[in-house]
Design goal:
Largest sheet: 24 strands, antiparallel, barrel
Structural class: mainly beta
Shape: globular
Number of domains: 3
Distance between the termini: 31 Å
Number of helices: 5
Helix content: under 10%
Length: 894
């Protein structure tokens, strides 16, 4: 994709073997010199169409194309930066009052080898070309339009100059435009017609836009560009050339109205005694999506009663931690333009990097409350979104604006108990609001911004009493770069306030995000009378992000005990501060047996707000791209002794010994029609008190240009002598109960993509998943902070007796023959199968028909032993829930 970056994982053993081979061959193994400074900006002058515009057929033989000259001058970016490309590329650009026309000629001396792979939009592969416009001419944002030789579109919005510390690419942006391609003996051509309504620009008599054109020659894994953007560049858009000659353009007012209707049929096993389980349910619904260009700078997206029935299901997981599972957003309304509302507190890929002021999965989530009744319950699976709108854009003065307003409905569960029907509220009427602003100066070298979020719930008698009535959070962010944006300093600071009843705020203090009840945290206090809670967090960072082989970062991040973002954001853990240092060395040019090399070093340490060190660690990882087009990587982590404030689920901190973890990956040549990949990792701690590993091999098959099949199995093993089971009371004391778990997990993800044409695709996703966990050697924590592992707990031995009838263990701790407490049997066998089959036909640009079949099966046992044959048979013996859905939408462009 235009300006895309990728991290490659590679094994140190492979590196040493290849390095030795290079020496033996007498090859030069010195790093290539730093990329040269960019040349003076290139310019292209577009021509106005005065007569008949081009017909979009991919042939570029219309008379209009003769009005402008071909532009060449492409330079190779990969694998050899600055060299002449293997094959020549040229382009032309025309325009009129409504459209920009782009013609690209990709010459190819081996035209018979042009790779024309069919796929769904935005998943293009093979030989490709793309053009990008910085139409706002802010040197920060760009609208990119691409196509492969088979005519498959891909488009994206590029923000924040594509800098490595930003969420730079939005592939979900799907403008309405046309393109056609043709292959001939000289190579292949692409002809585009891009409506001016799909991009943003200000009102000027003569426009100057940033311009970039790119070509990917698939068989050589070669990228060439006009103009060249160095591989060590700190950004992308500010390196663009210029498009001139655009005169007399008025920004059109974009109006797109897309009504839809959806019909669904659900089938499941009927249950005679349950009046809600009749075996079938039919619905017919409708809604409206729209997009309005308020000005040439601002666009309003809205949706009324949206339906996301065609969205792929989340993957299956078994979560044995204290923390919430993070799921990525897949719903189109929230995915498109997500970069506008992205407010990550810190970058990277660790646990803290997920913390964000805005997490759109909160909107329309499953209801918070599940009623407990002696009877039957019919629960809504999600909270209905009544309506939502997003106003976004960037003014010519450099002010970026994003406003989101959403209202979700009040939901109630239907209950049948004692021969009578009733309704129990499970989710109140809720308003979600987010405002994001950023002002940049000096072509984006300095940016000052802020964000504010608000959640307000209309809580009435009978509504869930443990929810916040209001939740507010805000933050400011500052970024300054210098030396052509190679160096930067950034600051983010956030604060939050939640309010509600004393019970609601008490629940927040007790939650896994806070655990104010910890007896060894004397700097926080559990206050059951509170009706509000406040906190702060942030991140401070300085580093080098481009310009040469070395890059490095030093930073500090913090989350105060009272910070709470989870009403509309995502926050995993509070009461933590962390310093971190990262350094990376890149070799961009091929040398020896490598196409590129990437090695990284990390160091970190964490503290709580009581000043205690709670973790330390470091990491080194190596990533290689080999000249045979394979990728390989390896990483090794070391962790020092740590203190966990979550293991006892609100009890005192638990000391863990030093540990380690490592990972490796191998990926074969991505150009081949049969390719393999494998990823594995392992971790351990102390003298083997914890050991886990998993392996994910995969194979991708491309039997034809239209069909792609991928199969990715998963096998994981987990052994842990300190796995939390339960907390029980014995008199005035708490008993923190743990066991030794032996867990095995097996899953497989199957994907099938079949493209009948660039506008009609069939996609299948299926994931069978089984996980079994068996517990033994039950114990209670006696001295959680002891440096002696054996002194931290006491085994129950024969004092824990299993009561099969009650499916529980009873514990006679003092040996007087009378059980002191009991806990449920924690053994489990979890089985789940999720799949969906989607036919998507974009019968005219912007309008689509979906045919969907989704199936789900979920079951469980208390056995605990892993038996593949038994569990898989049990999974598919489970009666499925099927959903058949037809969704039809039509886009009116007014």
């Amino acid at each position: 994709m235009l300006g895309s970056r990728y991290g490659l994982r590679t094994a140190s053993l492979t590196f040493l073997l290849a390095f030795g081979a290079a020496l033996a061959a007498g090859q030069d193994v010195k790093p290539a010199p730093s990329s040269p400074a960019p040349a003076e900006k290139k310019c292209y002058t577009a021509a106005r169409v005065d007569g008949r515009p081009p017909i979009i057929d991919g042939k570029l033989d219309d008379e209009a194309w003769a009005r402008c000259a071909w532009e060449e001058g492409f330079m190779q970016r990969m694998p050899y930066e600055g060299r002449q490309p293997s094959e020549k590329t040229a382009f032309k650009i025309l325009y009129d009052d409504k459209y920009v026309y782009v013609g690209i000629r990709a010459y190819d001396s081996q035209a018979s080898t042009i790779d024309r792979r069919m796929s769904r939009r935005d998943q293009a592969d093979g030989d490709m070309v793309a053009v990008a416009f910085d139409s706002v001419y802010d040197h920060m944002t760009a609208f990119a339009f691409g196509v492969n030789a088979a005519g498959v579109k891909y488009d994206q919005f590029l923000a924040n100059d594509g800098q490595s510390n930003s969420n730079e690419e939005d592939m979900s942006w799907d403008p309405i435009w046309e393109v056609a391609t043709t292959v001939d003996k000289e190579g292949w051509t692409a002809e585009m017609r891009i409506p001016l309504s799909q991009i943003r620009f200000g009102a000027k008599d003569e426009q100057v836009w940033g311009l970039h054109v790119q070509r990917n020659l698939f068989r050589n894994s070669e990228t060439s560009m006009w103009p060249l953007i160095p591989r060590d560049a700190s950004g992308f858009v500010h390196f663009f050339g210029e498009l001139r000659g655009l005169t007399g353009l008025n920004a059109p007012h974009q109006i797109e109205i897309m009504p839809y209707t959806v019909g669904s049929l659900q089938s499941s096993r009927p249950i005679a005694a349950n009046p809600f389980a009749t075996g079938g349910k039919r619905t017919l619904n409708g809604g409206l999506d729209g997009k309005i260009g308020v000005t040439g700078d601002l666009t309003l997206n809205f949706t009324i009663n949206p339906d996301f029935g065609q969205v792929e299901a989340d993957p299956s997981v078994v979560n044995l931690t204290a923390y919430e599972t993070f799921y990525t957003e897949k719903r189109p309304f929230f995915v498109e333009g997500k970069n506008i509302f992205n407010y990550q507190l810190m970058g990277g890929d660790g646990d803290f990097s997920m913390d964000n002021l805005f997490y759109s999965r909160r909107i329309g989530r499953d209801p918070h409350y599940t009623p407990s009744v002696d009877g039957f319950v019919d629960m809504p699976s999600t909270t209905a979104i009544l309506g939502a709108f997003k106003l976004s854009g960037k003014t010519k003065s450099g002010l970026s604006i994003g406003v989101l307003e959403t209202v979700t409905s009040k939901e109630s569960a239907s209950v049948y108990s004692g021969g009578a029907y009733g309704n129990v509220p499970v989710e109140p009427l809720t308003n979600y609001f987010a405002l994001r602003v950023q002002q940049d100066w000096n072509r984006g070298q300095t940016i000052l911004g802020g964000m504010f979020t608000a959640v307000n719930r209309q809580l009435k008698d009978g509504d869930p009493a443990l929810l916040h009535s209001a939740a507010y959070a805000g933050g400011i962010d500052f970024l300054h770069t210098w030396d052509n944006k190679n160096y930067y300093f950034s600051l983010k600071a956030v604060t939050s306030r939640v309010q509600g009843t004393a019970d609601a705020i008490l629940q927040t203090q007790l939650s896994s995000t806070h655990y104010f009840q910890r007896p060894d945290a004397d700097y926080v206090s559990l206050d059951p009378t509170r009706t509000s809670l406040m906190g702060s967090g942030g991140n401070l960072e300085i580093g080098k992000q481009g310009g040469g082989h070395w890059m490095y970062v030093a930073g500090f991040t913090w989350r105060s005990p009272g910070l709470e973002l989870n009403d509309i954001g995502y926050l995993r853990q509070t009461d933590v501060m962390m310093q971190y240092i990262w350094a990376g060395y890149r070799i961009f040019e091929p040398w020896g047996p490598f196409r590129s090399i990437n090695i990284n070093f990390n160091q970190w340490s964490g503290f709580n707000f009581g000043g205690e060190t709670i973790f330390t660690g470091g990491n080194v990882n190596l990533n290689l791209n080999l000249k045979n087009y394979w990728y390989t990587g390896f990483g090794y982590n070391v962790q020092g002794e740590s203190m966990s404030d979550s293991s006892l689920r609100g009890g005192p901190s638990l000391r863990y010994p030093r540990g380690y973890s490592y990972w490796f990956s191998v990926m074969t040549d991505m150009r081949q029609k049969v390719r393999f990949n494998v990823f594995g990792n392992a971790s351990g701690r102390g003298d083997g008190d914890m050991r886990s590993w998993n392996i994910n091999p995969g194979v991708t098959l491309i039997p034809s240009a239209a069909l792609q099949i991928s199969i990715t199995p998963l096998y994981a093993v987990n052994h842990n002598i300190l796995q939390y089971v339960d907390t029980q009371a014995m008199g005035a004391d708490a008993r923190y109960l743990f066991g030794t778990i032996e867990q095995k997990t097996l899953g497989m993800t199957l994907r099938l993509d079949y493209s009948l044409s660039p506008n009609m695709t069939i996609q299948y996703y299926g994931m069978p998943f089984i996980s079994a966990g068996s517990y033994r050697d039950f114990k209670r924590i006696t001295n959680s902070r002891s440096k002696d592992m054996n002194a931290r707990y006491q085994l129950f031995g024969g004092n824990a007796v299993y009561d099969k009838a009650g499916a529980q263990y009873t514990v006679d701790e003092n040996g007087d023959g009378v059980p002191d407490y009991a806990f449920a049997n924690p053994d489990f066998n979890f089985r789940q199968f999720r799949s969906n089959l989607v036919l998507r036909w974009e019968y005219v640009p912007g309008s689509a028909l979906f045919l969907v079949w989704s199936q789900g099966r979920t079951g469980s046992l208390l056995n605990g032993s892993f038996d593949y044959g038994r569990d898989m048979q049990g999974l598919f013996d489970t009666h499925p829930q099927n959903v058949f859905l037809v969704k039809f939408s039509y886009c009116f462009q007014l």
